[in-house]
Amino acid sequence: MSLDPTGNWNLTYSFAAGCGQAASQATSTFTVTLGQQGYNVEIAGTQTTGTLTCMPTTCKLSAVFAWTDASGTQFQQSANIALDAQDNLKGNGTESVMSSTMSCNIAFTVQGTRE
């Protein structure tokens, strides 16, 4: 039987310095639900695409999250995250930032726990 990843997962991102910004941290939550075609992953306010594959002791999420802020700046995160049977997650990825005046990428790591 595979691990059941459903529920809310709290994330802490650690961003490297980049795009004219110092290194920083941010928090977020994503929700995993079971749909007709498998697991669905959602972060409020984003468009999400990806795959969540589960085995008996771990799940692997490969996803892209995209959104636009109030100033029109577009963000896209590409992430690879492992969720484990102890309700922990860990991963990494890249955030792309695109506006009328710049385009750049910031590397990040992410860790967290299930609520």
Task: Explain what this protein looks like in three dimensions.
The model has no long low-confidence stretch (mean pLDDT 94). Strands 3-2-1-8-7-6-5-4 form an eight-stranded antiparallel β-sheet, with no helix packed on it. The chain has no helices and eight strands. The chain has strands at residues 7-15, 24-35, 38-42, 47-54, 58-68, 74-84, 88-98, 103-114. The protein is mainly beta.
Write the layout of secondary structure elements.
Blueprint: E1 7-15, E2 24-35, E3 38-42, E4 47-54, E5 58-68, E6 74-84, E7 88-98, E8 103-114
Antiparallel strand pairs: 1-2, 1-8, 2-3, 4-5, 5-6, 6-7, 7-8
Supply the helix-strand structural class. Answer: mainly beta
**Strand count:** 8
Average pLDDT confidence is: 94
Helical content (DSSP H or I, runs of 4+): under 10%
In the sheet with the most strands, the strands line up as 3-2-1-8-7-6-5-4
Q: Give helix and strand order, one letter per element, not per position.
A: EEEEEEEE
Indicate the radius of gyration in whole angstroms: 15 Å
- Please mark out the parts with pLDDT under 50 across 5 or more consecutive residues, or reply none: none
Number of H/I helices? 0
Beta content comes to: over 45%
Major sheet summary line: 8 strands, antiparallel
Termini Cα gap: 22 Å
Based on Cα principal axes, name the global outline: globular
